[in-house]
Amino acid sequence: MSIDRVATNAQTQYLLSQIMQANKSLDQSQAQVSSGKVATDYAGIGDKTAALEAARAAAARASAYQSNTQLALTQTDLQDTQLTTLSGLAAQLQKAIQTAAGNSDGTSLVDTANSIFQQASAILNSTDANGNYIYSGQKTNVAPFSAADLGTMSTNGNVSDYFTNGDIKKTVLVGDGQTQQIGVLASDIGEKLMQALKDIYVADGNGNGDLSGQLTSAQVDDLTNTALPDAVNATTSLNAATAANGDAYNSLNDAMTQQQSVSNLYQGFVSDIEDVDMATALTNLNSNQVALQAALSVASRLGQLSLLNYLPAVTTSG
Fold it and tell me: How far apart are CA 184 and CA 249, in angstroms?
């Protein structure tokens, strides 16, 4: 006859299941504390998976729009500097013509015109960090202004013939269904200025020095009635282009702010679903450790119990 243990097989199996469950809960708590996430797979997210992926996709779109907008802001900021410079050059030319006509002295006028031509040409043919021409429209690999010098432009064809840019201004996508035009065409900002410069060169006899020194009344009238109005038009046009570029820059800044808000909103949704509350996770970890230790302790003690522990001691007589 054998003396059975107090614990039955059913009790043992129940305790084993409790140990397995406690161990599983402990593993989950440890993973949450370690990763900071509710779960590392979709099974742990459950019925919130679709909402999680939708929020992630929306946050990713907002981030992509932010990247596009930031590049556009960089370009419009550069354009602002260059347009302001061009506007200043046009104003400088306007003042030089007025001074020459007012004093009937064109001594330095052509030199001023040549200097302005070189500076304006460099701006019109400027490139971005990728080597693309900024003011070429869709023809980003083609220099938008082809005249090598003021003499070439003034003696061969029309001013417009030397502008080879495309006719499509660059736009950027700044949101779902929202675009912002940022492109500026060389012909729009340079043609009037170049026409005023050509007027001076032609008045100088196409570089023969006719405007050097004292001017005749006919030359003064020519400058006043031809070159000066074109210079005024160039200044007005460039001021308007600079203002429009500034408006685009402000719109892009507004879009950037909106995108950041959207991104923060959806990233918050993602965090609410997948990020664990660390204080709660640490509390659960401690609780699950205690629960597992308790289950193991009970199982160990239960496995050691038998009826012998409860039988009275037997004494033998000598």
Answer: 13
- In the chain the domains, ranked by start, together with CATH numbers, are 65-269 (1.20.1330.10)
**pLDDT in tens for each of the 318 residues of the chain?**
444 444 556 655 665 666 666 556 555 555 544 555 655 555 555 666 777 677 778 788 888 888 899 999 999 999 999 999 999 999 999 999 999 999 999 999 999 999 999 999 999 999 998 999 999 999 999 999 999 999 999 888 899 999 999 999 999 998 888 899 999 999 999 999 999 999 999 999 998 999 999 999 999 999 999 999 999 999 999 999 999 999 999 999 999 888 888 777 776 656 656 655 445 544 544 554 555 455 556 555 555 545 445 455 555 554
Distance CA 166, CA 135 (A): 9
Contacts of 315 (CB under 8 A, 6+ apart): none
Amino acid letter at 296?
Answer: L
pTM of the predicted model, to two decimals? 0.72
Residue 89: half-sphere exposure toward Cβ, Cα within 13 Å: 27
Sequence-ordered list of residues with C-beta below 8 angstroms from that of 86, at least 6 positions apart, any chain: 120, 123, 189, 190, 193, 238
Q: Kindly list the distances between the CA atom of residue 170 and the CA atoms of 39, 222, 248, 265, in Å, as whole numbers in the listed order.
A: 44, 39, 12, 30
Burial of residue 9 (CB within 10 Å: 0-12, 13-18, 19+) is exposed
